[in-house]
Amino acid sequence: MKRRIPLRKRLLVRLLIATVLIAVCSVAATAWLAVETTTRALREEQGQDLADDMKILAELSGYAATHPRWNGVQSLVRTLAAQTGRRIALTTTDRTPIADSARKGTALPLGAAATVDPLHSDTYSESGAQLTGIDPRAVGPYRLTSGERARLEAIAEKQRSCYSRFSIDTRIETLPSGRPVILNPDGTTAGDYLTEDCGYGLLGTPTRTETKALDALTAGARGCLERHGLGSDGPLFLMLNPNGTVSSSRYVIGKYAKMGDASAMKTAQSCADDALRAQLDPYVAPVAELYLGDDETAPPRFDMSPANKAKIVGAAGLVLAVTVVVTAVVATRLVRPLRALTEAAQQPPDMHVRVPVTTRDETGILAEAFNDLTERRERLESQRKAMVSDIAHELRSPLTNIRGWLEVTRDGVVEPDAALLASLHEEALVLQRVIDDLQDLAAADAGTLHLRREPVRAEDLLDQVAAAHRVAADTAGVTVRTEDDGKPWLDADPVRMRQALGNLVSNALRHTPAGGTVTLAARRDGDEVVFTVADTGSGIAPADLPHVFERFWRAEKSRSRRTGGSGLGLPIVRHLIAAHGGTAVAACEPGSGAVFTLRMPGAAEPEG
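^ that's the sequence the OP posted. Answer follows.
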């Protein structure tokens, strides 16, 4: 009965499931990787854009802080645009163009990215700008003259040397106004706890330029203070704050009439800031609007639109559909010959069904192997039937003779004389020989053929076999001779070797006419010993050579058992030689005799 394969265990279904799973995993992994990579790239791009925007704003704010007008900023704008790959446009507050990196006539973006005003800075473009809203690079009237700068640099170098004597590591940094300051390695201002021997107090004293600017700042701030009821006839004592994190135009209120009043101090600070902006206004560029990008109204972001989602879903579906179709086609082509093999294997054994070989791949190789197996099985079956028939024939003839003679003797027709007994004994020997041959073949097939190995000289084997067949050879008129080259030795069972060589000589004597010759030879060939048994008989046809070692095979079917043998001698030779690890082959040409060659592993000559 044909067994039905469950659906889940069919090769086609398994291939489809495996392929679909692989395709789904591939699509999912590819989509995830694409999304992650794109998102990361966009984030990096946004971060880079933000850094570029801050750089652009810092450069333009610095330009505005150090120039009273925007004349000449066009070259800076073009340089920054080339470095960052961004469109940069500067306009006045009423959108009048000042400078633009784009072609003339290109429309401005919808909104300004930032306002460039060094006196009201709300960015982190420069350290300290976020503290007062004034760009530290805007120094105006506080810029030192070259002479003042040289004198302060000499004082700073002297003071740094003094710090070094106390094993204090410091460095000198020059502020935008030209004033040097002494800083610790971490960027903080060096302490003021050293003695006057190091010149303390000289570096922080305002120069003539700074004093003049501070006096003007004091006058400007006094009016604001008076409006808030904080007027005073005394000076405000505005002093420089030599801190590396702020510019030289920064100041602190050193003393005030209402010291300790937090509200008063905050009002005084605000008045001073307003006065400082008014003081620096003539030295900085007018307020400008900064436009960035190519008409972009929003920063770039990753957003998968419905159309993109539809594309991804469609692409994934297409991949799955193509995968399923291709897998179905391939699986069908793979399964079809397997099904043919299964159907052929399920047929009755006596039909010996073959399958067509339609491909050259693994399935085709499997089909060829199946056909070869079927052919061998058919051949073995034919051989089995022929062997049973041959065995019955081999046993029937002597048994029939023995039975017939015994029956006529029992009936008194023939007297049991010596000749009759000799004939019956000969028939019994024939039966015993056939049974012994069959037993040897059965032992060889079962792997139970026992060998008693010992060092054997090939010359002795040849002499013993020739002597055993000398009488039969003389009776048939055939000459038996031996040849040996180098007296080779081998490790073998001498009884089994004499049996193998004797079968070959017996076979040669039966096929050699009177006056012919049978030659036994042995020689050394490398690590092997080669035995040959050659005759001058009629030989064997080339078509019959592959069958000479088959059981019960005879070259001439018309030969009787007595002239053609039992057909078991040569198969026994092949098994005996194979048990010794050797090979047996036959070669001959019709009309020139046959040559049987036995190759055996050689052995060294024993000592003594």
